[in-house]
Amino acid sequence: MTKETNKSIIIIGVLFFIFGFVTWLNSVLIPYLKTASQLNNFESYLVAFASYISYLVMAIPSAWVLKKIGFKNGMSMGLVVMAIGALIFIPAAISRTYALFLFGLFVQGTGLALLQSAANPYITILGPIESAAKRMSIMGICNKIAGALAPIIFGAILLKNMDKLEASLNSMNAVEKAAELDALSARVITPYIIMAVILIGLSILIYYSALPEITTDEEDETLAAANKNKTNVLQFPNLLLGTLAMFLYVGVEVIAGDTVISYARDAHGISTDVAKYFTTYTLIAMIVGYLIGTVTIPKYISQQKALQLSGILGIILGLVAIFTEGYISVLSISLLGLANALVFPAIWPLALHGLGRFTKIGSSFLIMALAGGAILPLIYGYLADTFDPQAAYWIVIPSYLYIWFFAVKGHKIK
């Protein structure tokens, strides 16, 4: 790779770090807002829903914006929108209005949808398709290092003395309880102001950076001939099947990271001071997986084979979590991070392969599929309330089974 390409990869790596940090804050926000806004499981997982449903709503508009202003300016704009979402947390915290928190998360998700619509295809195209999963693995490392840090940093602020506070709330009268919850809600203000300032600063840096613009509207002669009779993106089965794989994958990834803290506390009685680290363990497991990917793909193992192994490992760990107890069960959920690590970087090139001039709209389909992170955790929350948090993890088994199918056969259907 050229020196310019390496510089571009570093810049995109910073962006992956940022949206990793913001995305994985949900693992802390879910138990935090569950107490601050006095919610049940289903209501608390609306945090994930609000964050990820924006991908479904905004992916196609994001593609239109990127077509008009290009990848680079789209990334800069995405960071500004994320900063606006962060600032909405201030009035939400002051008024302790859960709906306003959710709106702030939706706005942040809108910025993330634009950012990811630009950054994911950008890094996929920025080099040979055979090593795209390797480049995506490097981006994943940046993303998950940020994700591992986010629960530790924000958990120390938002979840401080949470067990003690929850125990004392039961003995308070209505006025005292409201005052304590208002103070708890206010903890979020300063961190989100700092976040907004950083996001705006990065937006300015990206805008004035030397990132090259990449076009996806041109095709080489072979690809142009193959796509001669293609009139729309729905004529690419590998994309459509890959979109479903992405939907299910993001759903189980978010379940693994965002439910594990609450699961450890509610189902196994593990204290918050200990439980708040389990999401970090999930992200560390993903980092290990990404490191394996950077070393082995494509030299020792193809991205298709890596995806097959990921599906099988996900099924095994899901079953262990369901049929064991205590720390073994909880750690099995965290270890799903290892099964998840290479799924995202493998689906992108397999689903977008051969799309040529349809790549941007195809990328939008995959971004829309990130809405799996909105739907599946919400289903998990409903199942946890209806049955129990452990039985609710049955939802991951068919998801990993389909991911395995896409790796074995689905991506080959043209």
UniProtKB/TrEMBL annotation:
It is a multi-pass membrane protein. Gene3D superfamilies: MFS general substrate transporter like domains. Residues 8-414 form the Major facilitator superfamily (MFS) profile domain. One of its GO terms (molecular function) is D-glucose transmembrane transporter activity. The chain crosses the membrane at residues 9-33, 45-66, 73-92, 136-159, 189-208, 238-257, 277-297, 306-324, 330-352, 364-384, 390-408. GO terms for cellular component: plasma membrane. Pfam families: MFS_1 (PF07690). It comes from the Bacteria. The keyword Transmembrane applies. It is found in: Cell inner membrane. Belongs to the major facilitator superfamily. FHS transporter (TC 2.A.1.7) family. This is Glucose/galactose transporter. It comes from Salegentibacter salegens. The lineage of its organism: Bacteria, Pseudomonadati, Bacteroidota, Flavobacteriia, Flavobacteriales.
